[in-house]
């Protein structure tokens, strides 16, 4: 897609530090390096994000994650890894070509943190919401 920075990286029009490539996907180091080794995995085919992704693209893209994650851990000596995917602006997406962040973790305070708000469980509301979502999944 024209004017898509990641399509330009796929086409080799913009340089990147590649860590893995095959016919379907590309993985390269994120320029921001939130932690050492911060990597992005993308489908070569332009798709906006997971909310727009077909199953075949998801299968090829997400299937590559464990192999790349293990290699990244081995190469960096990280203790663990956050695997993050932002969809739409509200969720922090700034580049609108689907990508998965692999963020190696070394220690708390290493540059990345994740905070979840937690609430007391309301089991009736949970049941109703699950039913509503499962109806949509079945569509
Ligand atoms: P998002 O915020 O959309 O989830 O993540 C986009 C990521 O792409 C950011 O972490 C940003 O650092 C990275 N990024 C943006 N432009 C480039 C680029 O030209 N090259 C590389 N390697 N990463 C980029
Ligand atoms: Zn693109």
UniProtKB/TrEMBL annotation:
Pfam families (UniProt xref): HIT
SUPFAM superfamilies per the UniProt record, alphabetical: HIT-like (SSF54197)
Transmembrane segments: none
Intervals of motif Histidine triad motif: 97-101
Domain HIT: start-end pairs: 5-113
Xref: CDD domains: HINT_subgroup
Protein name: Histidine triad (HIT) family protein
